[in-house]
Amino acid sequence: MVTLGWKAALSFPFEDPAWKHKLFIGGLLMLICPPVGWTIALGYRRAVGMRLRSGATPPLPEWSGKWWSFYKGGVGAVGVILGYYVPFMVVYAIVAFGPSLIHAEHLPQIAVFFGSIAFFPLVLAVFPALYASAFSWVHLTPAEIVPLTILFVATAFVLPAAFVQVSVNGRFRSAFRIRQVARFILQQPVLYAEAWVLSLIASAIGVFMGPFAPWGLFWSYIVILHAFTEAFLRSGRPDAIAAFASSPLLSRIRETTPQRYRKAS
Prior knowledge:
With about 260 residues, this protein is mostly helical. It contains 13 helices and no strands.
């Protein structure tokens, strides 16, 4: 059975001779101003993905003169995340805020909820539960919490499959090609699950680095990119193979994949 290159993914950021300097800046930005730093980190990860696709060296882009480009790329990534979470937010708003919205009550608190998510989508992981516990006017029954939780987790599970679609042409709108996203997951469930396991381990390493967590998380974002990109390429989709024709990652996959895959691609 084909498996991902765990060592290659975990060590990928360190292939850059200047990795200490580049990872330090990324982690520092996430530490100083998480909302902006996280957005820039997403844009930087996109740039890493484009270099991985083209086979450019060194693998990590320089920071100098590209701050605005990374931020714009991050804003696009945030748009993808928010776009995918619209169904969850709509359902949550109906269930949790429905009575208040009907009677035009608690509107400032509701505005803060959605405004905070738009500014820093990571709070989406805690704000729904926080509001349910902090405000008595937010009523959620166990029968409502369970499907909301499933919807939230399912959306998170699908997101990496959406983001790898961007790697083919660099356009964020490709992330909303739902059929391609679903096909990748359904045709390669084992590879996709393995990429998720690798990603969760990398994220856990980053989180448990304590005071160095911002740097660990920044490193983990690049590892996650590599893991899901490799899983995506191993799916054998022709346009992805063509886009990554110059990538050393594709060369390594062909060297470690059965002959039938090489013929198919």
